[in-house]
Amino acid sequence: MTVYAAYFSPTGGTEKVVKALMEGFGGSYETIDFLTLGTKPWSRTFRPEDFVVAAIPVYGGRVPVTAARHIANMTGSGAKAVAVAVFGNRAIDDALLELRNLLSAAGFDVRAGVAAVAEHSIFRMYATGRPDAEDIQDLHAFADSIKASLDQPGTLQVPGNYPYKPKRPSANQPRADDSCIACMICAEECPEQAIDPEDVQNVNPEKCIACLHCVSVCPVKARNVNQEVIAERAPKLQETFGPRKPNTLFLPH
Ligand SMILES: Cc1cc2nc3c(=O)[nH]c(=O)nc-3n(C[C@H](O)[C@H](O)[C@H](O)COP(=O)(O)O)c2cc1C
Ligand code: SF4
Ligand code: SF4
């Protein structure tokens, strides 16, 4: 049996959640990083005895297209899987249901669902510093419960509605300012190849998924979303994004 952590984590929050879960499971595992795979043609066939933890950040209550594309390139062959939706303390909406369905359609036997909180990658004043020590404890405990229930019969129900929420294009895609040193790191690392390598100011709005990976990797902090928009919107979100939301584990009944 090989254990895999397959995830998409443009700004590192999903990866922190995955690492805590994998610590809880114990033992070694192989990483499949959807961000690095980007738009590369790729496929992977798993064996029935494998175990896969598949994790995504929630975008507008949905699974990011990059992750959905890579999951569709996986052949589960009946391997057991855990679906993990990481959200920025607003809501998961339909993302965990969509992830479970994508994994089932790829041939995985989805044995558990996890909704976990990480710092909001756009509104960084919300869920700041999460997953924190309390979250890590939750995630370790979730791993224990999942291990203990892996061979239990039953169907996994997770929250969400189908048809899923419609996808909305982001109105606040990152741009570079005058301090850009034209190093091209952002263009090389963009998982959707949305940044023109000849001119990093030129971003294809149809391709950009507003994942903010380019903001994270810019060595001179020249890239960002429009901070005036953030400052204007953030206070209005306090009621919804502010109160601490729990991490939740879903097991088959
Ligand atoms: C485009 C976009 C849409 C988002 N939509 C939601 C959302 O619907 N609900 C929510 O709670 N958080 C939302 N977030 C926050 C992320 O889900 C959260 O910060 C996640 O931990 C980011 O993962 P990463 O650090 O691995 O990139 C959104 C973030 C981005 C960039
Ligand atoms: S250009 Fe868009 S898709 Fe590409 S890394 Fe930046 S935010 Fe993500
Ligand atoms: S990573 Fe930053 S400095 Fe480098 S090209 Fe992109 S915006 Fe410019």
Describe it.
The chain is an alpha/beta fold and 253 residues long. The chain folds into 2 domains: 168 residues, Flavodoxin domain (Rossmann fold, 3-Layer(aba) Sandwich), CATH 3.40.50; 51 residues, Alpha-Beta Plaits. It is 29% helix and 17% strand. It contains 9 helices and 10 strands. The strands form 3 sheets. The protein has a 6-stranded mixed sheet with strand order 2-1-4-6-7-10, with helices on both faces. It has a two-stranded parallel ribbon with strand order 3-5. Strand 1, helix 1 and strand 2 form a beta-alpha-beta unit. Helix 1 packs across helix 5. The two termini are 25 Å apart. 42% of the residues are buried. Bound molecules: flavin mononucleotide and iron/sulfur cluster (SF4) (2 copies). Flavin mononucleotide binds next to helix 1 and strand 6.
Give me the secondary-structure topology.
Elements: E1 3-7, H1 13-25, E2 30-33, H2 34-37, E3 44-45, E4 51-57, H3 65-72, E5 74-75, E6 80-87, H4 95-105, E7 109-117, H5 133-149, E8 175-176, H6 185-189, H7 213-217, E9 223-224, H8 227-233, H9 238-241, E10 248-250
Parallel strand pairs: 1-2, 1-4, 3-5, 4-6, 6-7
Antiparallel strand pairs: 7-10, 8-9
Bound molecules: flavin mononucleotide and iron/sulfur cluster (SF4) (2 copies).
The name of the CATH architecture of the largest domain is 3-Layer(aba) Sandwich
Mean pLDDT: 97
Alpha plus pi helix count: 9
Rg of Cα set: 18 Å
CATH homologous superfamily heading of the largest domain? Flavodoxin domain
Oligomer: single chain
Roughly what fraction of the amino acids lie in strands?
15-25%
**Spans of at least 5 consecutive residues with low confidence:** none
Order of helices and strands: EHEHEEHEEHEHEHHEHHE
Give the helix level as a range of percent: 25-40%
Overall geometry? globular
Provide the domain count: 2
For the termini, the CA-CA separation is: 25 Å
Ions, cofactors and other ligands present here are: flavin mononucleotide, iron/sulfur cluster
CATH class of the largest domain equals: Alpha Beta
Instruction: Briefly note the CATH topology name of the largest domain.
Output: Rossmann fold
Strand order of the largest sheet: 2-1-4-6-7-10
Q: Report the major sheet.
A: 6 strands, mixed
* DSSP E strands, number: 10
- The secondary structure category is alpha/beta
